[in-house]
Input
Amino acid sequence: MTEIVSNSLFHSNATLSIAIAQCGIVWEDPEVNFSKIEKLAKEAKEKGAEVVIFPESMLTGFSMNIPDIAVSPTSVYIQSLETLAKKLGLALVLSIFVREPYFADDKNEVQVQRKVFKNECFYNRVFFITPEGDTFYQDKRHLFRPAGETHYVSSAASRKLFVYRGFKILLVACYDLRFPVWCRNRANEYDLLIDVANWPQARNDVWRTLLRARAMENLVYVCGVNRVGQDSEGLVYLGDSAIVDPKGRTLAEIAKNEEGIALATIEKAPLESLRKKFPVWIDADDFTLDPAKSYPIY
Output
């Protein structure tokens, strides 16, 4: 099931100024990482950004100590992010490990998707927090088995699209980028794909290639933000964050191993023009995406 949420009208002349914030993450230290978010968000705003995107698991790093580091959706950190977005007039995008209570008698939920630990479920949740007071989110669908993410984290049971300032948006987290069915843009149902990542150096060429492949095959803008530095597991990250247009051309990027901000403004009119002149989406294979079906997490 794909859900679509709208908070704005459709505008064919819409533009959106997006900043990608490539940075290191201090392992399991949300206070220090929040200070980094605040600093980079202010810098992005000064450069004219309307949206700033940070890496995956920005508050803690990609630690698998999930029961210890996950926070409630109403935690002080998320409340502080909402306050920061409103204060700066800037939308914030990042993923955070969150915890929610599990109710065993809830028969309406797809139980097979949910991992339960001490009556709680955990999610790798990508947030899009707006200055207008709206918070959209998408849970990660494809859990990174080699790192043990499947041990605690529950997979998304739905794919959610939303509209912000005239652009239909799909959020994904890191490993999701490898799966073209999950990212598939059927009948131009979205315009912008945002991927927040902790994608290590060993597979850096894959990261760079998939960002551009997802843009070209789906005729969408793609923003990919990866961390830099080394984590406590010894993995090294190069970054290579970029904003890519629907033809696979790089609109903005940040050099390897560097922390910083890069900015690009995406435009709706050229996207619509391309879709009319080169309507490959009409010839796409039809299929039904059913996220409610069992995800092989056990």
